[in-house]
Amino acid sequence: VTVSPKLIRLAENRVDLVFEVNEGNESVVKDIKFEGNEAFSDSELRGKIADGHVEEIGKMPELASVVAVCDREPLMAEQLAWRYGLARHYGDYDELLAREKPEVVHITTPPQSHLALATRAVDAGAHVYVEKPLTPTYADSVRLVEHAEGAGRRLTVGYTYLFDPPAVAMR
User: Could you give the CA distance from residue 96 to residue 19 in angstroms, rounded to a whole number?
Assistant: First the structure.
């Protein structure tokens, strides 16, 4: 498999990546659009944190369950749902919010999308768990916190304390 970048178009708050994937004799061109304040790095694009969230929620069936998953690439959502035996998956976030009406939404996307996705979840009536960082900027974080408070929704950020002084001292 060979992946060849063909074009990177930058516009205000948007990055379009067009690349070609060659598998043997077949060649497919993919166009992916990202919105946010910064471009995504390769490591952010390869993240698999959503799997960890589904696994951990699955360990507490008496408290919570995953009702559906979503990815802007429908095949990725379908694969995640298949791996964990989930009945529903979406390629459209707003459709998931409208149909499922989740109590809590976990945002496990690259940081540049956190503000928009979390705001839409709050507007749909959900409490929100956002992977770190809350947003890429302090100003956006303040806006998001104020929005959640104003809507009476809970908002939290996933953050581990592995390297904070008390945790290091306990080792």
Answer: 28
Distance, in Å, from the CA atom of 57 to the CA atom of 63, rounded to the nearest integer, reads 8
Rounded to whole angstroms, how far apart are CA atoms 68 and 106? Answer: 11
The residues, ordered by sequence, that sit 6+ positions from 88 with a Cβ below 8 Å of its Cβ are: 67, 68, 69, 81, 100
Evaluate whether 66 touches 86 at the Cβ level (below 8 Å): yes
Strands 69-70 and 89-90 come out as: parallel
DSSP 29-45: EEEEEEESSSPPPHHHH
Residue 20 CB: number of other CB atoms within 10 A?
Answer: 14
Question: What pLDDT shows up at residue 165?
Answer: 75
Only one residue has tokens 């109590």, namely: 103
Catalytic residue, chosen from 6, 30, 101, 132, is 132
**Pairing state between β 26-35 and 69-70:** unpaired
pTM: 0.69
59 is catalytic: no
What CA–CA distances, in Å, run from 145 to 23, 32, 137? Answer: 45, 29, 12
- What average pLDDT is seen over the chain? 79
